[in-house]
Amino acid sequence: MWWNKKSKTMKIKFIGAAQEVTGSKHLITTDHGKKILLDCGMFQGKGLETDAANRNIMVNPKDIDVIILTHAHIDHCGLIPYFYKLGFRGQVVCTDATRDLCSIMLPDSGFIQENDMIWFNKKRRQQGLPALQPIYTEKDARASMELFVSIAYNRYFNIDNNIKVKFNNTGHLLGSGCAILEIDEGGKMTRIGYTGDIGREYNYLLRSPEPFPHCDYLITEATYGNRLHSDRTNAEQQLLEIIYHTCVEKRGKLIIPSFAVSRTQEIVYLLNNFYNEGKLPEKIPVFVDSPLAVNATEIFRMHVDLFNDNVKDVIEYDPDPFGFNSLTFVRDINQSKALNAKKDPCIIISASGMMEAGRVKHHIANSIENPNNSILAIGYCAPTTLGAKLLENPRPKTVSIFGTEHTVNADIFEIDAFSGHGDYKEMIDYLSCQDPSKVKKTFLVHGDLEAQQHYKRQLRKAGWENIVIPEAGEVFEL
Predict the structure, then answer these.
(1) What is the C-alpha to C-alpha distance for residues 434 and 216, in angstroms, rounded to an integer?
(2) Tell me: the pLDDT tens digits for 263-277?
(3) Suppose 246 and one of 93, 155, 310, 374 were both cysteines; which one would form an S-S bond, judging by CB atoms 3.0 to 4.6 Å apart?
């Protein structure tokens, strides 16, 4: 088998996020046979196809010695419980905040797997097919947390006598880090940098991405490799205008599909500032309808040290930047259902950001046919998701939600400046801490092929050479 313990040269195998955006998994095998998995992400956004993709892991989890985890988004950490279920018992090394976020996000993911499989198996029974088990359960996810070892930014952790790792802040998510691996193979030192996802130069909550040491080999993302974001200076005004248009002028509901972790906290922080400044329309209630977002907000409150100076200044006079009088955090499912019957103007922030699952999908189904309502997209939507369909140009006249066709009468808005991924200019600026002539090879991952090819051309203009776009399952010697 290809994963045999002995190897003469160091190799890297690209298992996921190869010419696509989700499922980040990259396996390094050292010349001594040590197996290091960079991220352990779940494929998302392909409907029923994702189940088969997530079970095809191309590696024996029992043989993996350590998982290096760059951040807590499910497309980077979501298969750790599955690997645990299949026998992985090595360490999961990450930052402190990443560990804290995983402690709520992975059990939530397991809960979703269990419930999705109930619905999936009903369909299989109708087709005369046997029932399937979920990829993993909430219990598996909680058990896998015993493997986590967390470290502070900029501190090396010794995996063994020859391998160490540290994380430099990437500004993408609370605790996100560029992993710097230093591997000593018989006196030959090799440094591998894996950026994970790269944040924006300016983030409403987090510190800006920080430079990282020179690398011999670089693995880096390309999500927005063919895109430039709109100016963030207008984003807050756009948000206020959409709130007024929907809740004051039309007297309708504003539905904001938002990732429960990071994006929701950013929007709540901005609304909190609007409230403090007297800009938020009076008596317009705001609901955060996501138990995961509620828990994640508590974790954000625990890591004030990771916030930027602007947030710390706000905390000087407002101890809770994620709470104000007209804001309600919704946990109970019955409270969530009651929001659908609500006729008065309000703002509902709910997961998922791609509008593909979760409570927000129900809110959209109940709101999309009313022209008084609006739906505001504020993050990346994978090509096959409901969010991507609603954002098509021209806007679709109908969309299918839970198998029912709905007429699109609500206003559909998008503010891409809230994206947590840097555009190609921001990513190239981030990589300027490297001397391109000294990087032996650069691998582009976590991006659709079109975005990767465009980004590759932009990198070459900036002086980068030896750029590779690996295919899924492709192996390279280092």
Answers:
(1) 10
(2) 999 999 999 999 999
(3) 374
177-185 and 163-169: which strand pairing?
A: antiparallel
Q: Over the range 325-358, which residues count as b (16 or more CB within 10 Å of their CB) and which as e?
A: ebbebbeeeeebeebeeeeebbbbbbbbbbbbbb
Q: Are 76 and 98 in contact (CB under 8 A)?
A: no
Structure tokens at 35: 């197996």
CA 311 to the chain's CA centroid:
22
Contact 416, 219 (CB under 8 A): no
Of the listed ranges 67-76, 129-138, 157-166, the one predicted with least confidence = 129-138
Q: Residue 302: in which H helix or E strand, if any?
A: helix 291-302
| Helix count and strand count (H, E) for the chain | 14, 22
Alpha helices in 127-243 (DSSP H): 138-144, 235-243
Q: Which residue, chain included where needed, has tokens 């800009």? A: 279
**C-alpha to C-alpha distance for 150 and 29, rounded to whole angstroms:** 23
For Cα atoms 58, 450, 445, give the angle at the middle one, nearest 5 degrees: 40
Instruction: Pick the more confident residue, 289 or 384.
Output: 289
Residue keyed to tokens 């809110």:
363
pLDDT for res 3: 42
How far from 347 is each of 118, 149, 272, 282, 418, CA to CA, in Å?
A: 31, 39, 13, 12, 17
Alpha-carbon span 328 to 367, nearest angstrom: 20
Model confidence band, residue 305 (pLDDT cutoffs 50, 70, 90): very high
Residue type, position 267, single letter: I
The two beta strands, 217-221 and 35-38, are unpaired
CA distance 76 to 25: 7
Residue 46: per-residue pLDDT: 67
Q: What is the pLDDT of residue 281?
A: 87
Contacts 24+ apart (CB under 8 A), 361-367: 361/386, 361/401, 361/402, 362/336, 362/337, 363/253, 363/255, 363/289, 363/339, 364/255, 364/257, 364/401, 365/401, 365/402, 365/404, 365/406, 366/340, 367/253, 367/255, 367/340, 367/410
Nearest Cα to 109, choosing from 364, 267, 332, 291?
291
The pTM score is 0.91
Q: Is 211 left (phi over 0), alpha (psi -120 to 50) or beta?
A: beta
What domains can be seen in the chain, in order of their start residue?
A: 11-227+420-477 (3.60.15.10), 233-418 (3.40.50.10890)
Q: Which helix (H) or strand (E) holds 452?
A: helix 449-461
Q: pLDDT band for position 47 (50/70/90)?
A: low
